[in-house]
TrEMBL record:
It is a multi-pass membrane protein. The lineage of its organism: Bacteria, Pseudomonadati, Pseudomonadota, Gammaproteobacteria, Oceanospirillales. Keywords: Membrane, Transmembrane, Transmembrane helix. The chain crosses the membrane at residues 29-56, 77-107. This is DUF4870 domain-containing protein. The keyword Glycoprotein does not apply. It is found in: Membrane. It comes from the Bacteria. Pfam families: MamF_MmsF.
Amino acid sequence: MNDNPHHDDPLRDRVVAEQGGSPDTTMPIVVYALHLAGIVTGGLTALVGVVIAYVYRGRGPSWLDEHYRYQIRTFWLAVLYFTVSAVLTLVLIGFVTWLAAVVWLVIRCVKGIKGLQEQRAPDNVDTWLV
């Protein structure tokens, strides 16, 4: 189920385009940066980033809203992956899964930033992987 009521709304995209210029991608870039900074802040900045994504979702063209949806999914999946890794550290494999989760997070953020630069939605928004 799509949690964004404006997903693929061509009328809204046309209205946004008629308002002039390309949409500002500063906030989505900030959210990706906050997700990445969460690696060293224990997730605190990622929490701030997901709040920003929730606030800004629905205010731009559908491709930009897909970035916010992707960022929100990335946050919640990261919470799951890092929690599982924390539990698995009790049997020592958690250090490997934590490293895999870090790599996963970096790849998702880089893919998202690349999509922003190309002014298109990120690929595979609904995937649990990259």
